[in-house]
Design a protein that fits this description.
The complex is a heterodimer of chains A (about 110) and B (about 900). With about 110 residues, chain A is of the alpha+beta class. In chain A, strands 1-3-2-5-6 form a five-stranded mixed sheet. Chain B has a six-stranded antiparallel sheet with strand order 10-9-8-13-12-11. In chain B, strands 4-3-7-6-5 form a five-stranded antiparallel sheet, sandwiched between helices. A five-stranded antiparallel sheet of chain B has the order 15-14-18-17-16, with helices on both faces. Classes of the chains: A alpha+beta (about 110), B alpha+beta (about 900). The interface between A and B is medium-sized, with 28 and 22 residues.
Chain lengths: ~110, ~900
């Protein structure tokens, strides 16, 4: 995750033609934001490998971006595509939930 | 809201985001919160901490409430509740959350009907209600919770325990009720005035304060209790002996009365009750009793017993106080009733007294009016004179004006008028009476001087009035005008004196008359024999001169005795109807000669003077004697006035003269201007032999007196030394006309012509003289020494005399009787009476009937011869 106003990481999943454009709004190095970044990194490295384009926005640096995206709590992961636009608030520590929100519920599930 | 369309999708997305955000926030997964309004960032951590702090504070606050509080959902399922609720219900909140609160609180399957939630659900506003849970009261407030669309999502319910407040309210209500009851009681008590009604009202009022209870009123009299009233009424068969009891037998009543405070018996069944109390408690089912003393000004009037039937009911102090108030009211009213009763009795007594007093006062007023009227109308003066505090009259009746000329007001104005009015000579009498030792029982006779200066005699009776110290403070009295009485007494004294004088003169007259009678007979004999001797002597006989001297002396003596007889009214009068004026006129010449040149005679004779019945010769004697008397009184000359007048003597004036009857009189007044005389001399002027002259006989005025009184008249004299002297003579008027003066034939001695004369005379000398004399005149003479002897001669010896010559006054048979007897057998017997004086027993008032021939002793021989000739010759029978 790059620091700065904006950053894009392209990752493409091999088995999925669907590209996920994800924007994670974080608050500097705050614990929840770090956890969310790490969780997103695990997703991008895992289930969303090669099929995600991730932008990380530090709201402390870019406040207006958060307002533009209707983000009221940080960290929040905004799923910009595929539509509909969705937002997942929190540390993204429940991977299954995040995947469900992304519509990528693991088949057979991890139970 | 439609869930189609981009806006709603976006909304849903946003909502979902918000929800997720909130969830994340709750999970603590948020670092920052982006302020939408104000561009700022908020650290989520601090937010959460703040939130937790707030939540903790809120919970603490929630739990800190004493009131039970809970939050329910729209179906009243419990969401949260505070500690107070947990405690009240004795359950953990976690054990109750999710259950409907009505189930938790009321144990019911449906909300309580009074639950304000039901109303709040409709009104969506706060609703409250007071609800009872068991023995506690709660005020329940329900605030509905609404969502953005004002849909009910739940409610906040708070229940505040208001049990104490309710109790206080209840107590207040009860207190108010009781106070109101007390007020009613007071009004009722105040309305009852009659004791019996009041007692009943007291017990009735006591029961009103304790519905369903009983009450009894016992009155204390000394050591005894008596049942005065009960509610409800006692049964008819309640023993009479239970109605009265000794105070000592009642420990609770005794304690209540001793302490003056109510005594509460919580359980009557365990108390030591008297038989009567127990009977009543059983009768009424009473469980607790209250004894309230009735005190009035520290005095025990009685006790009020209140009984409650409620098993759990024990009288509270408050109730006891209430009854104490009632009892004090009742005591006050009993006192008032007693006072009112006493007042009534006092008023009744007062009214009786007042009526009595009014009657007494009326009687007094009547009496006073009565006496005042008596006093006002009295003829006598009635007065009251006070010496203290101020001296003066306090009452004088109107009679004072008539009696004295001074009005009562003048008496009031002048304290000294009472003394001033008294004649100066009599004032010491009154002053003496005012002394302390005076005898007030005797009337005081005083002379008063009227306002006009005239004098009146009064008789005063004074009654002294003393104060407690014995000082004379007032004098009450009556003064009567006794002037008339005094005058009458004076008049009576004068009359008495006159009567005494008349009686004295009468006595003297009898004496003189008696002597004169006998002396006359003696003189008659002397004269008779001397005259007969003279007739027998030759003219040249030397004895003739001696005999003539004897005859002259005897005739002088006879004149004297005649005067004596005239005074003694025993001389025979020959009264005829005569004119006094004619008698005076006939004497005028002779009187002038008698009086002499120095004395003027004035006659004032009333014309048409009525005739009087009198002896003319005696009247001439009267005038002559009065003229002689006057002449002696006027030695230096003067005036003699003779008046006549016709007057009418009324009863009063007639009464002033003894022996005079009212009627018409002729008044003869003889007044001289001589030296006058003293009262002493005047008193004796008519006494025989009383004289002020050196040569007087003392018989002149005595003779006048005798003639006038014998003629039915009266004589008085008024004179003072140096003043005129007036003799006033009243002679009664006669109805008979004055007779024509008859000429009497001259008497000649002539022979008796053999006529038979019976001579009756007890005096022997005179009888023999008459017999001898008549025999010489040629009469046949029979003589008797008494009436009886004469009767003997006529009736036994058959003597029939032509003439009876008899003395009138004789022993045994009088001359008059003798005449009557002899005329029975010889009606035509001629009679000639002879007497030295007239005896009233025989001759009516000394006056012989004019028709009966009469010759007075001593008589001369010639006069007897003439008289006998007249009688026998046909003059008289």
């Amino acid at each position: 995750v790059a620091s700065g106003t904006s950053g894009k990481r392209k990752a493409r999943g091999a088995g999925s033609p669907q590209l996920y454009r994800l924007t994670l709004f974080v608050a500097g190095d705050e614990p929840n934001s770090r956890q969310a970044s790490e969780a997103l990194a695990r997703l991008c490295a895992g289930p969303l490998a090669d099929r995600c384009e991730v932008r990380i926005v530090d709201v402390e640096a870019d406040y207006q971006a958060a307002l533009d995206h209707g983000v009221i709590m940080v960290p929040t992961l905004v799923v910009e595509s595929p539509p509909p636009v969705r937002a997942i608030v929190g540390t993204l520590s429940d991977e299954a939930e995040v995947l469900a929100a992304l519509g990528l519920a693991r088949e057979g599930g991890q139970r | 809201v439609s869930d189609t369309g981009p806006i709603s999708a976006e909304l849903r997305r946003r909502l979902a985001l918000a929800e997720a955000a909130l969830e994340a926030l709750r999970r603590g997964e948020v670092d920052l919160v982006v302020g939408a309004d104000a561009p700022r960032l908020v650290r989520a951590k601090s937010l959460v901490e703040e939130n937790e702090r707030l939540a903790s504070e809120w919970q603490k606050t929630f739990d800190a409430l004493d009131d039970m509080a809970c939050i329910v959902d729209a179906d009243q399922r419990l969401l949260r509740c505070n500690l107070a609720m947990e405690r009240y219900l004795g359950r953990q909140a976690s054990a109750m959350v999710g259950q409907p609160c009505f189930h938790i609180v009321h144990g019911t399957a449906a909300p309580h009907a009074q639950c304000p939630f039901l109303r709040a659900r409709r009104s969506l506003q706060r609703e409250t209600a007071e609800m009872q849970l068991g023995d506690r009261w709660f005020q329940v407030t329900v605030d509905p919770l609404l969502d953005a669309d004002r849909r009910l999502t739940g409610a906040v319910q708070i229940a505040r325990d208001i049990t104490r407040q309710k109790q206080a309210e209840e107590q207040l209500r009860q207190k108010t009720e009781r106070l109101s009851g007390l007020l009613d009681v007071s009004l009722a008590l105040a309305g009852a005035r009659e004791p019996t009604a009041l007692f009943q009202t007291i017990v009735t009022s006591a029961v009103r304060l304790l519905p369903g209870g009983s009450a009894a009123l016992l009155l204390v009299h000394d050591d005894t209790l008596s049942l005065a009233a009960t509610v409800p009424p006692l049964p008819a068969d309640f023993p009479a002996e239970f109605r009265v009891a000794a105070l000592a037998e009642h420990p609770y009543i005794g304690r209540a009365l001793d302490t003056g405070a109510p005594v509460i018996l919580a359980d009557a069944r365990e108390a030591e009750l008297t038989a009567a109390e127990r009977r009543i408690c059983e009768l009424r089912g009473l469980r607790s009793l209250l004894y309230v003393p009735l005190l009035s000004q520290e005095r025990c009037l009685g006790v009020l017993i209140v009984g409650s039937v409620e098993a759990s009911h024990s009288f509270t102090d408050e109730e006891a106080d209430l009854y104490r108030v009632l009892a004090s009211h009742a005591a006050l009213e009993i006192d008032k009733a007693h006072l009112a009763e006493e007042n009534r009795q006092h008023i009744a007594a007062l009214e009786r007294l007042t009526a009595e007093q009014q009657r007494t006062e009326q009687a007094l007023r009547d009496s006073e009016a009565h006496f005042r009227r008596l006093a006002e109308n009295a003829q006598d003066i009635i007065y009251r004179y006070e010496f203290a505090p101020t001296r003066g009259f306090t009452y004088v009746n109107p009679a004072a004006v008539a009696m004295t000329g001074y009005t009562p007001e003048e008496h009031y104005a002048d304290p000294d008028l009472g003394l001033k009015i008294i004649h100066p000579d009599d004032r010491p009498l009154l002053e003496a009476v005012a002394g302390a030792t005076s005898d007030f029982t005797r009337p005081l006779v005083l002379r008063w001087v009227r306002k006009d200066g005239s004098l009146l005699w009064t008789e005063q009776r004074n009654v002294p009035l003393y104060d407690e110290q014995g000082n004379l403070v007032a004098m009450e009295g009556i003064a009567r005008d006794i002037t008339e009485r005094v005058k009458a007494e004076e008049e009576r004294a004068r009359l008495q004196e006159q009567l005494q004088r008349a009686q004295r003169l009468e006595a003297i007259g009898r004496l003189a008359g008696g002597i004169a009678h006998d002396f006359n007979n003696v003189l008659g004999v002397i004269l008779g024999y001397a005259e007969m001797a003279l007739e027998r002597l030759l003219p040249e006989d030397p004895l003739r001169t001696d005999l003539e001297q004897i005859v002259a002396a005897a005739q002088r003596a006879a004149s004297l005795t005649r005067q004596l007889l005239a005074f003694s009214r025993r001389q025979p009068l020959r009264p005829v109807a005569m004119s006094l004026n004619e008698a005076i006129g006939g004497m005028e010449k002779m009187l002038r000669r008698l009086l002499g040149e120095d004395i003027e005679l004035a006659l004032a004779l009333a014309p048409d003077l009525p005739a009087v019945q009198a002896d003319p010769a005696q009247i001439e004697q009267v005038l002559m004697n009065l003229a002689v008397n006057a002449r002696e009184a006027m030695p230096a000359g003067g005036k003699l006035r003779i008046e006549t007048a016709a007057i009418e003597l009324d009863a009063a004036r007639a009464a002033a003269r003894p022996g005079v009857a009212p009627g018409p009189y002729v008044q003869l007044t003889v007044t001289d201007t001589g030296c006058g005389m003293t009262a002493e001399v005047a008193a004796q002027i008519f006494d025989p032999f009383f004289t002020t002259k050196e040569r007087g006989t003392g018989l002149g005025l005595a003779t006048v007196y005798g003639i006038v009184t014998q003629s039915g008249g009266s004589i008085s004299v008024s004179s003072e030394p140096g003043q005129d002297t007036t003799f006033r003579i009243y002679l009664p008027v006669t109805g008979a006309p004055p007779p024509v003066a008859a000429t009497q034939p001259a008497g000649h001695r002539s022979p008796g012509q053999g006529k038979h004369v019976l001579v009756v005379e007890d005096e022997e000398g005179l009888r023999k003289l008459i017999t001898a004399f008549l025999s010489r005149l040629g009469y046949r003479v029979s003589a008797a020494a008494s009436g009886g002897e004469a009767l003997l001669l006529v009736e036994e010896k058959g003597l029939r005399p032509d003439l009876l010559l008899t003395d009138v006054v004789m022993p045994n048979i009088s001359g008059r009787e003798l005449v009557d007897r002899l005329r029975r057998s010889q009606p035509d017997l001629k009679v000639l009476l002879m007497s030295g004086y007239t005896d009233t027993a025989i001759l009516h008032h000394g006056q012989l009937e004019a028709s009966t021939p009469f010759i007075e002793k001593p008589f001369s021989i010639d006069r007897l011869a003439t008289k006998i000739r007249e009688v026998i010759g046909g003059h008289g029978r």
